[in-house]
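pasting input
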Amino acid sequence: MRAVRFHEHGGPEVLTVDEVDEPEPEYGQVVVDVEAAGVNPVDTYFREGAYPVPHLPFIGGGDLAGTVAEVGQGVERFAVGDRVYGTGLGNGMPGSYAEQAAAPADHIAHLPDEIDFIEGAALGTVGATAWQALVHHAAVDPAETVLVHGGSGGVGHLAIQLAETMGARVHATASPEHADDLEALGADEVFDYSRSDLADAVVDAGAPDAVVDLHMDQYLQFNTDVVNTGATVVGIGNDTAEGGFDNIGATKGKEVTFQFMSLFNADDLSAILAPLADLGARGELAPVVHRTYDFEDAGEAQRAVLEDSFVGKLVLEP
Ligand SMILES: NC(=O)c1ccc[n+]([C@@H]2O[C@H](COP(=O)([O-])OP(=O)(O)OC[C@H]3O[C@@H](n4cnc5c(N)ncnc54)[C@H](OP(=O)(O)O)[C@@H]3O)[C@@H](O)[C@H]2O)c1
């Protein structure tokens, strides 16, 4: 089968399409015929060597959608031919950028017919991250206000939709050309993150009770300044928090909870993916797929996911 691998760590140019053996399902795994594989910033961290891989060459990619081709021992919930989608591959096990991938059963869920494979491949990492941030960590209540920094991004555009579905009022920041798209996805207010009066504008629109932050180096103090007392700020980005706090007293005074998270810590990704898929099937949320790429262009897709500005997700097709 064909798979996108890196034989050494480096830039997007180290990705090559290779002929490799098809995977065998280990205990608790299924083998999936991959119809589409989502592209995420984290895929580039493994490629660069910032995150460890067990061996080289290595198949990258964390997200997939496809049909079950083979079921390993100990797997009860899936059968050959089931439509599935999943996340969390490529971390200690071969990834999803391949015509077939072996996936632990607790990393996948059934994909309803209403969601096509390309959307399914786009949903895993970003949907599960938005879920962990808003449902698990921030426990957003209906009628609360949520601020999503970077609402145009993969995580951001799903967080907007999930927060709206939870009944929240949603503020988002983004490059100004994406404002209309994000309002169509459910944002009540969209702010250009480069405006100098951003904090005043957010507070005037309604102080947030929860914040999804993917750039902690820039927004630690900002978040404290704009939130309501008792707010939860969920930090998902990989920046160092070197911006720090100018005024730790304000953080104390408002009793702000800062919760940093890693999706890799989720006990059972399947238990997050299943309700997300239900929401997708009911039309409550849908990943926006900005562009699809062939495997041969995986390097260009990984460059674009870090460098280009667009709404939503990039997806590879074998
Ligand atoms: N902790 C975890 O478990 C976890 C899980 C998933 C992702 N992540 C991390 O979270 C980050 C976002 O992931 P993603 O998939 O959403 O990435 P993405 O699709 O590349 O989105 C990046 C977003 O950042 C926005 N942005 C750029 N500069 C900004 C600024 N100064 N202020 C506010 N927003 C700014 C972009 O907005 P414009 O394009 O509109 O300029 C874009 O919406 C990545 O670092 C990723 O590795 C962590």
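fyi The CA atoms of residues 17 and 296 lie 6 Å apart.
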